[in-house]
Amino acid sequence: CLASLAAPLTFTMLQWTRVYKGSSIFWGNASLDGRLSHLLEGLNVTQVLPLEPPETWARRQQDVNTYLLYFSQLVQLFSKERPINYTQSLCCRLGCRLFPNGTAHSFYEVTLNGTAFLSFHVPNATWERRWPGGDAVAAYAEGELMKWPKTTQDLQHFLNTTCVDILRAQRAVTGKQSSRSHAPLVLGLILGTVALLGMAVGIFLCTGGRC
């Protein structure tokens, strides 16, 4: 029991994108305090926990489907101009932890083809290269991500505030108020992660250091 009380609450999302010869495959999941909350398979995302009413959830599903379809079409377009004859696998892992003393820790890590690629330093809202040797592809992706508020200040706020609020709602007294508080935020996390996958287009376009 003491160990349980000392353990942090955690919200984690994993998102994988695999690209081969212009075709994109997506899958992933989200977990809230150890419970599976969402699944992404192909172009479809489903909520395992009933966090939003059917009408609202249907709109969220359509938003995700539209973005992933658009992303796939972009990859197909770039692939025709610069063919890549091997698989590219991008994995994004992000989330936050809330400790019993009220402090929180947020994280965002990206791997490319199984190797640490980029990480987001939340306190300073900066992207940092993890790719061995400072490869030009990592430098290009880092530069692109640092250009936009969406992938710097907005992401910092999202991880420091929105994500942590999910966990604070979980820790609060259970009931309708808590449910209303965290449900839309959970969906916001999914949509925010999917949107950031747009940077993968730059990675595929710049593969091999030919930026």
TrEMBL record:
Keywords: Glycoprotein, Membrane, Transmembrane, Transmembrane helix. GO terms for molecular function: signaling receptor activity. One of its GO terms (cellular component) is extracellular space. One of its GO terms (biological process) is negative regulation of coagulation. InterPro entries: Endothetial_C_recpt, MHC_I-like_Ag-recog_sf, MHC_I/II-like_Ag-recog. The chain crosses the membrane at residues 185-206. The keyword Acetylation does not apply. The keyword Membrane applies. PANTHER family: ENDOTHELIAL PROTEIN C RECEPTOR (PTHR15349:SF0). This is EPCR protein. It comes from Stercorarius parasiticus. The lineage of its organism: Eukaryota, Metazoa, Chordata, Craniata, Vertebrata. The gene is Procr.
